[in-house]
């Protein structure tokens, strides 16, 4: 169908303009989405950088000689608050430094777990003797910061190796005992079957002898008759 000149002008001024507007809107939407995505990524990168800097601060704090193992647990809410409030960050670093550089009871050779929460009231520090390190290792599995004594770690490894060897020896002893019991049961079953067979043979033999004697007696009576 042919379009008049007036119709062509209307088409150019309206349809093509709408198409261009749609393209512009899509472009603006793409730019906004891209900008928003970049902003979120920057926030994540900033938090990651903040955590690395905080870790470096913790790593520079010297441990008291009584502390063999130390772990610092920090919640995500605590990180957000410390990043937003430098005073809170310095306050937490100060109390952590106080506890990591001070003597911890029961001394010597203690394990220390520090917990940093959203507020100063959530802060706590707990210590144990290395002879009772199960609590330390249980509470420091996912710690943000953790340092342990190499000697204590080696002792723990040796203990684990000893326990594994002892468990393996017990398993071997149990397997040998089970094997002896199984063999004894097999021998008992064999003897029982043999004894039962002998009894059956004896019973059959007795029955045969009795039958022969009966037939012999019956034959004698016939001859006499």
* Distance linking N and C termini: 141 Å
Count the DSSP helices.
5
Largest sheet entry: 4 strands, mixed
Number of strands: 4
β-sheet strand percentage: 5-15%
Low-confidence stretches: 1-8, 15-24
Describe the protein's architecture and organization.
The protein has 3 domains: 1-60; 61-148, no CATH class; 149-225. Helices cover 72% and strands 11% of the residues. It has 5 helices and 4 strands, in the order H-E-H-H-E-E-H-E-H. It has a 4-stranded mixed sheet. Strand 2 (110-116) and strand 3 form a beta hairpin. Mean pLDDT is 78; it is low at 1-8 and 15-24. Residues 145-194 form a coiled coil. Keywords: Coiled coil.
Which short descriptors sum up this protein?
3 domains; 11% strand; 72% helix; disordered N terminus; 5 helices; alpha+beta; 225 residues
Short structural description:
Keywords: Coiled coil. Helix content is about 70%, strand content about 10%.
Please render the helix and strand layout as text.
Layout: H1 5-59, E1 67-74, H2 76-84, H3 86-101, E2 110-116, E3 124-129, H4 134-139, E4 145-147, H5 150-224
Parallel strand pairs: 1-2
Antiparallel strand pairs: 1-4, 2-3
């Amino acid at each position: 169908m042919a379009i008049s000149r007036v119709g062509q002008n209307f088409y150019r001024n309206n349809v093509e303009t709408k198409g261009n507007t749609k393209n512009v809107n899509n472009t603006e939407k793409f730019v906004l989405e891209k900008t928003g995505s970049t902003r979120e990524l920057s926030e994540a990168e900033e938090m990651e950088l903040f955590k690395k800097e905080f870790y470096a601060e913790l790593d520079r704090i010297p441990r008291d000689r009584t502390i063999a193992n130390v772990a610092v647990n920090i919640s995500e809410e605590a990180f957000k608050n410390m990043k937003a409030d430098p005073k809170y960050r310095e306050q937490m670093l100060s109390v952590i430094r106080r506890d990591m550089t001070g003597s911890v009871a029961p001394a010597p050779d203690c394990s220390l777990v520090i917990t940093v929460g959203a507020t100063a009231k959530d802060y706590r520090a707990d210590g144990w003797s290395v002879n009772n390190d199960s609590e330390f290792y249980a509470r420091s599995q996912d710690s943000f910061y953790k340092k342990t004594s190499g000697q204590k770690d080696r002792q723990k490894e040796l203990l684990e190796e000893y326990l594994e060897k002892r468990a393996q020896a017990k398993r071997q002893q149990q397997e040998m005992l089970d094997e002896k019991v199984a063999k004894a049961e097999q021998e008992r079953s064999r003897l029982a079957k043999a004894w039962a067979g002998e009894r059956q043979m004896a019973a059959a033999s007795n029955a045969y002898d009795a039958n022969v004697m009966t037939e012999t007696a019956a034959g004698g009576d016939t001859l006499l008759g």
